[in-house]
Amino acid sequence: MKQVYVNSLDIPSISRFAVGFDRMFDELTKTAGTLNGTNYPPYNIIKSGENTYVIEVAVAGFEESELDVEVKDGELIVKGEKQSKEEDGPEYLHQGIAYRNFLRTFALAENVEVQGASVKNGVLAVTLEHIVPESAKPKKIAITFQK
């Protein structure tokens, strides 16, 4: 039988030995705080190109007015709020489709921008692009030969 050891990442212990990485550790701590225990609604994260990504969120049954996508403080926030049901609605014998409110947050890396969002066949697709700034792109250095 093969034994598997699970190690946890202890950021405060690591930060004692790393100088200048405080911002990265802050981002990791913030990202760990956005993890919630719910799997609703299900979602996909797709890498669709070298610098482009698509986050798909299952939003079947939500109206346009009940969905909200926002970028705030380096996080993509996807929210769905169902309007209250009318009392004279149908009497369900079985209700297996969950129409409940949700809030999903995704931590975005620096220089990742939302390019757009659309809903097709009950799936919300948010397109993201990592835009590399000129200062971070590789550049050629001219070599001067002296005689």
Protein architecture, described:
The chain is mainly beta and 147 residues long. It has a domain at 39-136: Immunoglobulin-like. 12% of the residues lie in helices and 32% in strands. The protein has helices spanning 11-15, 22-33; strands spanning 43-47, 52-58, 67-72, 75-80, 102-107, 112-120, 123-130. The strands form two sheets. The protein has a four-stranded antiparallel beta sheet, with no helix packed on it. β3 (67-72) and β4 (75-80) form a beta hairpin. The protein is elongated, with a radius of gyration of 22 Å. The mean pLDDT is 84.
The CATH class of the domain at 39-136 is Mainly Beta
CATH architectural name of the domain at 39-136: Sandwich
Rounded mean pLDDT is: 84
Structural class: mainly beta
What's the count of strands? 7
Tell me which oligomeric state these chains represent: single chain
Cα gyration radius (Å): 22 Å
The order of strands across the largest sheet is 1-2-7-6
Q: What is the terminal separation in angstroms?
A: 70 Å
Strand residue content: 25-35%
Show the helix and strand layout.
Elements: H1 11-15, H2 22-33, E1 43-47, E2 52-58, E3 67-72, E4 75-80, E5 102-107, E6 112-120, E7 123-130
Q: In a few lines, what is going on in this structure?
A:
Helix content is 12%, strand content 32%. It is mainly β.
Features of this protein?
single chain; 147 residues; mainly beta; Immunoglobulin-like; four-stranded antiparallel sheet; three-stranded antiparallel sheet; 2 helices; elongated
